[in-house]
Amino acid sequence: MQKKLVTLAFAALCLNTGAFALSFNFTTSGSVPTNVQNAFAQAGQRWSDLFSDNFTVNVTIGWQALPTGVLGAAGSSSQNVSLSTLRTAMMNDATSGDDTTAVNSLGLGSSINFLTNHNSTNSNVYLDNNGSTNNTTLNINTANAKALGISTTATTDASITFSSSFSWDFDPTNGITSGQYDLVGVAAHEIGHALGFTSGVDGLDTANGSQSEDSRLLKTLDLFRYSNRGGFGLQRDFVADNNAKFFSINNGATLGSQFSRGINLGDGNQASHWRDNSGIGIMDPTAAPGELMVISANDIQAFDVIGYNLKAVPEPFSMVGLGVAALAIARRKRKNS
Ligand SMILES: [Zn+2]
Hints:
Layout: H1 2-18, E1 23-28, H2 34-50, E2 56-64, E3 72-76, E4 78-82, H3 83-93, H4 97-104, E5 114-116, E6 126-128, H5 133-136, E7 137-141, H6 142-147, E8 158-163, E9 168-169, E10 181-182, H7 183-195, H8 201-206, E11 225-229, E12 233-238, E13 245-247, E14 258-259, E15 286-287, H9 297-306, H10 320-326, E16 332-333, E17 335-336
Parallel strand pairs: 1-2, 2-8, 3-17, 5-12, 9-10
Antiparallel strand pairs: 3-8, 4-7, 5-6, 11-12, 11-13, 13-14, 15-16
This protein binds zinc ion.
């Protein structure tokens, strides 16, 4: 009986995943070795294996010398969208219980409130509830827009360049060789940024305080960035400082994994990541030599709620332990953005 159930579940999985798939169109910029192109194809496939969204992500890939200590760099196309439009799209795209919880946490108004700081309105932390542009409008990655069925005119969703100066391991299937970096894993990380794992806090953190509060807009993931700090309690948090920021899909009722807090005013890592060295997932800000990088349940949940639709996957998290074990190795900075 037990065996039969397993067989049925497998059949259902095949039916479920066959119809639609997220796909990638990689275009080379300059000379990119074939084994690097193959690594990108494998990295894209990892995300395609997880999500059923039926669209193509257009990524330009490069291979060249980058600054010391930078493994790779990614830039993503983005566009502004109103909170109302985004929420409606998320509602129409909701396929999981977490999606429903996440959409409900946004309320019904055309404006949202959050803590912020480091702008011309106030250098200190304050509750921004004035309904101005940054309360009504977000800036989301074009790949994230596509996932939500929001129209976009972008022809390229991201450009990712890898450093040719490092020693890379091109084959993660037999582990990552000591002293080398996991090229497929780092490519999967950079693609994760392109898909929408990113924070507007990085712009706030790296600009000077003379910017207006409306010059920095939330990304989709920032809707689920929360803190619990003295004087304010549980709040959506768009603050550049070194206070703890948590992933939460239910208005802070449950505080999940922590995010990084910013290069300048935070913890030294870009806010567009999980907190460093915490074994949370592939969107950790650093990679170590010899470390096998694996997409985790935490990663998947974040992509689910920002607009990606999960395929039925029976045991997706069995390799997380390997990633955690490897974190003990001395780490170095991966890149930025
Ligand atoms: Zn990153």
